[in-house]
Specification:
Layout: H1 11-14, E1 21-24, E2 45-47, E3 53-60, E4 63-67, E5 70-74, E6 78-82, E7 88-91, E8 99-107, E9 110-119, E10 122-131, H2 139-148, H3 152-179, H4 184-199, H5 207-213, H6 218-229, H7 233-248, H8 255-261, H9 267-300, H10 305-309
Helix pairs in contact: 2-3, 5-6, 8-9
C-alpha cells in the first residue's frame, strides 16, 4: 500500500531555514555529531556524482545516513549539502524504518525536487517537480560563490543566501505539486531530458543521470521516453550524434576531436560506432530496395490470359 503524503504538514519546516541543521563535507552546524555505524551499515550502498549536486532534507523519522565516509543522524530539519565527487548513500537500508526525505538535484541551473519515503521496508518516490531555470533560483552558482568565499564571514553570508534560495525553491515545489496533473508535465520533463542530451553529447550520456535530473527512476524514465518520443534513449542519442557529425565533418578537425565531441572515450569507440551505423544503414537500404523490387515485380508480371481462361 502506497504511503499517503500530505506535504502541507512540512511546509513550515521547509520554508523556514532557521529551523535547519546543515551538514556538508567541510562544514556543519553546531549540534551535529558523527555517529557510530548502525547495524544496517553493511546494507548502505553509496555513490558519487561528478556532474550534479544534491541536497537532502529530512522531514520525518530518524535514520543514520552515510555521508562522506561518515555517519550522521537524520532528524527532521537536518540538511545535507552534497557536492560533486562526495560519496553519499544511494539507497536506504530496508530496515531503516519509516522515513521521509526531500531530495533536490541541481545540474547546470536546472533544479529537480522529489520526495522519497521508506514505508514498510519499501522505497517509494512520492512526488516530484522540475523547476525551469527561468523560474527557479540558480542554486548551483550560489553554491560556487559559497565555496569560493575567502573569509569566514563571507562564507556564512553566502551559506545564509543559499539556505534562503533553497527555501524559495521549496515554496515553488509546493506550487508545482499542487498544479501538476495529466501527461503535459511529463512531456515537458522528457523535453528537458532531450535538450540535456543534445547539450551534453561531448560529456557522455548516462541514463541514470537523465532520470535523476527529471525526478524519475531509470526504469520509469526509459518507459516514458519511449512513450512520448517513439524511440529509445540510445536511439535518440545516436540521432543527435549523427546530426552533430554532419556539422563536424565540414570542419577541419581530427577524428580524435570528433570522437570527443560526440562523447566517445576514444577514436576506436567512434570508429566502431560508425561501422555499426553504416551496417544498419546498408541493411535498411537493401531491405528498402528489395521491397521496391517486389512491388515493381507485382506490377509488371501479368497473368497468362490463356491459363486464366482455362484454354
Amino acid at each position: 500500500m502506497k504511503k499517503i503524503l500530505n506535504l502541507d504538514e512540512f511546509r513550515d519546516l521547509l520554508i523556514h531555514p532557521e529551523k535547519w541543521k546543515i551538514v556538508s563535507a567541510d562544514y556543519h552546524d553546531s549540534g551535529i555529531a558523527e555517529q557510530k555505524p548502525p547495524l544496517y551499515a553493511p546494507k548502505q550502498e553509496v555513490q558519487v556524482h561528478s556532474d550534479m549536486r544534491e541536497i537532502m532534507i529530512a522531514l520525518q523519522g530518524s535514520y543514520i545516513f552515510r555521508f562522506n565516509r561518515k555517519y550522521y543522524k537524520c532528524k527532521p530539519g537536518t540538511v545535507f549539502l552534497i557536492d560533486k565527487e562526495v560519496e553519499h548513500e544511494a539507497n536506504y537500508a530496508k530496515d531503516a524504518g519509516d522515513v521521509l526525505h526531500l531530495w533536490t538535484y541541481t545540474h547546470q541551473k536546472n533544479t529537480v525536487i522529489h520526495c522519497v519515503s521508506m514505508h514498510r521496508n519499501k522505497l517509494q518516490n512520492l512526488t516530484h517537480a522540475f523547476m525551469h531555470p527561468s523560474e527557479s533560483p540558480d542554486l548551483d552558482s550560489l553554491w560556487d560563490l559559497w565555496q569560493q568565499a575567502g573569509s569566514e564571514t563571507e562564507k556564512l553570508w553566502y551559506l545564509q543566501q543559499l539556505k534562503l534560495y533553497l527555501a524559495y525553491s521549496f515554496s515553488l515545489f509546493f506550487l508545482h505539486t499542487e498544479l501538476r496533473s495529466g501527461d503535459q508535465p511529463k512531456f515537458k520533463l522528457i523535453e528537458v531530458a532531450m535538450e540535456r542530451i543534445r547539450l551534453d553529447l561531448s560529456k557522455g550520456i548516462r541514463i541514470e543521470n537523465l532520470a535523476r535530473l527529471v525526478g524519475y527512476s531509470k526504469f520509469h524514465f526509459v518507459h516514458l521516453f519511449k512513450q512520448f518520443t517513439g524511440r529509445t534513449v540510445l536511439d535518440y542519442v545516436n540521432h543527435c550524434r549523427l546530426e552533430r557529425l554532419d556539422l563536424l565533418l565540414k570542419q577541419n578537425i581530427s577524428p580524435k576531436e570528433i570522437a570527443a565531441e560526440l562523447g566517445f572515450q576514444d577514436v576506436h569507440s567512434y570508429y566502431q560506432w560508425i561501422r555499426l551505423h553504416n551496417k544498419k544503414k546498408q541493411a535498411s537500404t537493401t531491405n528498402h530496395d528489395l521491397e521496391k523490387d517486389g512491388v515493381a515485380n507485382r506490377r509488371t508480371v501479368k497473368p497468362d490470359r490463356k491459363n486464366r481462361s482455362g484454354n
